[in-house]
Write a structure and sequence with these properties.
By secondary structure, the chain is α/β, with parallel strands linked by helices. It has two domains: 146 residues, Aspartate Aminotransferase, domain 1 (Alpha-Beta Complex); 228 residues, Aspartate Aminotransferase, domain 2. 37% of the residues lie in helices and 18% in strands. It contains eleven helices and 15 strands. Helix 2 packs antiparallel against helix 8 and helix 9 packs parallel to helix 11. The longest helix has 22 residues. The protein is globular and about 60 Å long. The structure holds pyridoxal-5'-phosphate.
């Protein structure tokens, strides 16, 4: 029995089966590389669903976390801590004037955004939220309701009221869905789980002006797109459209669990004492990690790298597209990459795994490739050669 088999059997006995898992038990990681418990090495081009956005165990993050772990790990939010203040400042200085609420996950960050919008609309009797089909916003009851995909809702009805879905990138559908009860529009600036769907600048600008005109809160879920992967620190900057509320999670904590709901000045004081809270939210240890992520991105010029390596990876994938006719389309925004196939992608995923490359397949036919934003040309070349080998066997 391998070490992996032993762990798998413990899972079989003691862990709820809420995930489809492959028998890969990871033991350690460094940058773009991970090793399983039996010693096999992999190149990770989908690090923890984009959580390890600056690579696994970045030394600046590991150092900040271990230092903070010896000093102060948790304080109640009835007190102050320096790390929480400094991380909020870093987020605001990199986005727009406003304030931050810290939570522990993407779904929780979105819950805070939805509660903020509901509270803002409450006295006007406005509570409806417009979200997009093929969106993904998390797994709490409100967020499976907000998510525009039936597969996450089945069996959990009755769901909370007041969420309306419209097709993504269809401005007329948004206009038609607005009523005098509409309080917010929530969307991902690039749909990731939904298949790497990238909206136009015009669409985003039109959303902004509708929201301005009708006093609707525009919420961008940047849980997956945030922290440099889009070629800007936050994806909204690619569209020249500033949201009223932005939510963050995944890569923000450099591997530690964090969520953040960021509100522009106009909305920064809507949530007041007693209206929202989180016991663990913004703990010193997690915020120290987040600060180290910002510092590492700046020090190592990772945004520039995301742009140049995004372009390089795209070029290499285009070469594969010319070679293999089952590749239908390549969609990219820097290192947010989707390769749409006209065949199912799950066997490609598992063949890549065997060859030592971790990627993802979403919506059955779309390979999602999101290497850490400090990925190198050499690592991309290696990943491309594995993909080429796997594709050649189809
Ligand atoms: C992952 C994700 C979420 C949910 O985050 P959790 O931390 O799993 O709750 C929400 N929105 C988007 C866009 C995501 O990618």
């Amino acid at each position: 029995m391998s070490k992996t088999d032993k762990v798998v059997s413990l899972y079989d006995n003691y862990i709820m089966k809420t995930y489809k898992r492959v028998p890969l038990c990871l033991e350690k990681a460094k940058g773009v590389k991970v090793w399983d418990i039996d010693g096999k090495e992999y190149l990770d081009f989908f690090p923890g669903w984009a959580v390890s956005g600056i690579g696994h165990c970045h030394p600046m993050v590991s150092d900040a976390v271990s230092k903070q772990a010896k000093k102060l790990m948790h304080v109640s939010n009835n007190y102050y801590s320096e790390a929480q203040a400094q991380l909020a400042e870093a987020i605001i200085k990199n986005s727009f004037p406003g304030k931050v609420f810290f939570a522990n996950s993407g779904a929780e960050a979105n819950e805070a955004a939805v509660k903020l919008a509901r509270l803002y609309g409450h006295d006007k009797g406005r509570f409806e939220m417009i979200t997009m089909t093929k969106s993904f916003h998390g797994r709490t009851l409100a967020m499976i309701t907000a998510t525009g995909q039936d597969k996450v809702k089945h069996g959990f009805e009755p769901l909370p009221v007041g969420f309306i879905h419209v097709p993504y990138r269809d401005i007329e559908a948004v206009k038609a869905a607005i009523t005098d009860k509409t309080i917010a529009i929530m969307l991902e600036p690039v749909q990731c789980e939904g298949g790497i769907n990238i909206p136009s600048v015009e669409y985003m600008k039109a959303l902004r002006s509708i929201c301005d005109e009708k006093d609707i809160v525009l919420i961008f879920d940047e849980v997956q797109t945030g922290m440099g992967r889009s070629g800007k620190i936050f994806a909204f900057k690619n569209f020249g459209v500033v949201p009223d509320v932005m939510t963050l999670a995944k890569a923000l904590g450099g591997g530690l669990p964090i969520g953040a709901c960021v509100a522009r000045e106009k909305f920064q004081d809507v949530l007041t004492p007693g209206t929202h809270a989180s016991t663990f939210g913004g703990s010193p240890i997690v915020c120290a990690a987040g600060l180290a992520v910002f510092a590492a991105i700046k020090k190592e010029k990772m945004i520039a790298n995301a742009n140049s390596m995004g372009a390089y990876l795209k070029k290499k994938l285009e070469v594969l597209k010319a070679k293999y006719n089952f590749i239908k389309e390549i969609r990219t925004m820097a290192l947010i990459i989707g390769v749409e196939l006209n065949i199912k992608g799950d066997s490609i995923y598992s063949e890549c795994l065997k060859e030592g490359l971790l990627i993802n397949c979403t919506q059955d036919t779309i390979l999602r490739i999101m290497p850490p934003i400090n990925v190198t040309r050499k690592e991309i070349d290696k990943a491309i050669s594995i993909l080429d080998k796997v594709f050649s066997k189809i």
